[in-house]
């Protein structure tokens, strides 16, 4: 008799499956609860709702008591039993139809209109004949109507690809998939839900599906057997497979059917965007949050619901838990908000909905445990993100800036590869969101709060201070420059959230000063006053002149600055602080021009011009040493003879120079820098390094011919104790390096206009310095051929790979009538010219730069009192 036939696709099997779904639709009450309410033994209840019955159960003793108990549960949860489960009358009618062998319809509203199959032909059924797997409950779901329509459109338009519902934990990915199933069930013959966390769970689900499809075991993998049946053209089936909570795409590779039906994947891992068609799911809209809260807690006002939703940042699972907790305990909304703020983790453990396997706090803690085992660096990144604001975090704040972070636990901020891997893992576990368009990241404020509360006070202090260093050490530009304001606007929220103003480190105080200047520049005087008032005493210095950007010290028009050029224009306190910190750490490469060589510059200039006259140099650049001496070599004795003669005359004239005043080269030699680059032929830097007790080596590029190329000194890796001085243009103690022959000049030209990695004239140590460290370019006039040649070289090798903040010390001392206006125009011109390179430009002669540098570092520690050089003179000194 058909009524007793429980084979797949028969009316009895459909009704047995409806009994199993009945429990889920009622909120998944426990077997104990159903037993007490229905009067049915617990073991019998478990059999009824297991889907394993072999025949139709008794209506009076089994079905009706179970149905009424489930209706009671829905009513207790605030729902409508008729809407959620269907009326008792409809269930009785479906039962009687099966008994009387009439076409039956499912009594569940979610499958309304689905006719039962006629014997032997399940394909005529306009709804699923096979429906199951580990199908969760849908009782709490509401909203997401627009996302549901979008999901349907993507499924129908992209049936050959899986559709990935992607979002952080607790945003309702599973519930959206369930809503789709219940909304569009009549469109499918087979719907199967698969827990996809582990391959073993997936295989188990496919084995259960194979049994429902009536497949006999064979030698093929079970998934392959299922795919073969689903794609059988002789008996076509409309099918939907849902892989819930999938992790890595490669885990599902062998289980994804190639075509012929629909596949839904719910996941936190954004890697699924590259595999299928993504549907990004974010938090609730505020209206949905308020509606859900008021439905579950009718006494709650719209204003109270808005406050709760705001505190929970509209995270759906958090909203559901809050509603359940307040409904079950009678906790007032304001008290619940206070609990969330004070005891986030404990509060988020409460109110776990029956349709979610873990509470929000438990889900997060499970992910944290996995991270601790798999990639501790990702956990270190997340810990520090807990002290940023809930606003988006720019990527540049997650890389160590000019203020180094202490300890190995901060390695993730120093290594871009390690940082990228950590970010991917945090996204995979749904703990961080990324906006690829703006290169920003966000951690949910509830997770931030939970992490902070789980730390010890010592841990909180250390992590907060690291964030102070990341924010204060980031590149931001001048606070008076409107082009920099968007960066400052991003930093304000993170500075406030981390209580950065309370930090007593001087370098962080420099940032607070810049922040005050920015706030004043944009007209937010109230916030500027707040920072000035609450900062530690002395942390905020009175800002520089907001128009000129002049440094705050009283250097003014220094005696050594020709034509009254004001020192310091174009660079602010932040740039000074950053440069000083990098020099002290040796994390900088000074690039030194001939104007930093003191009196030697005038000797070289006069010697070259004398030679131009002696050999009747016919061209219009009599100051060009390489060309003048090269020309002399063609008319007098050949290149080697002329090179030696020129070097000898230089040394003779140099002996007449008595310049013992400390200059920029002498002071730069005192820093623990491991490498210097210079276009000057002078040996003074080398001599200064020797005087400081260091053991320098020096070398030049390998574009000379073999017979005239200077042998590079010091092939070992440079260190602070054994630094390298790299002469781009040769040096006087090596006469053969001073003048290029025509052949050598062509070799150099090919290098300068080609790619340095291809021609390979540099040692790897020099390439490493030039491509990884900030440069301090000092001793150049911006309109000189020397500077033009240097920048042509730098643009070939530096700007392609080195995006650090670099520094230029420039001055045009040839202009006798330099004024504020002409200097401002020059600064604007050079900023525009080097916009892509984005350097900090200091305007002043090298000696004035040296004095200002020493003043800012503290003259008692740094100003030399060497008998050889004498005490450095400072503005206002005797």
TrEMBL record:
The NB-ARC domain is annotated at 162-301
Spell out the Low complexity composition-biased ranges: 696-713
Q: Where is this region: Disordered?
A: 99-129, 530-572, 694-718
Record-linked Pfam families:
DUF7779, NB-ARC, SIR2_2
The region annotated as signal peptide is: none
Question: Which part of the chain is the DUF7779 domain?
Answer: 376-459
User: What SUPFAM superfamilies has UniProt attached to this entry?
Assistant: P-loop containing nucleoside triphosphate hydrolases (SSF52540)
Top-rank lineage group of the source organism? Bacteria
- Molecular function via GO: ADP binding
Which PANTHER family does the protein's record reference?
NB-ARC AND TPR DOMAIN PROTEIN, ZU5 DOMAIN-CONTAINING PROTEIN
- Report what the protein is called: NB-ARC domain-containing protein
Give the species.
Planomonospora venezuelensis
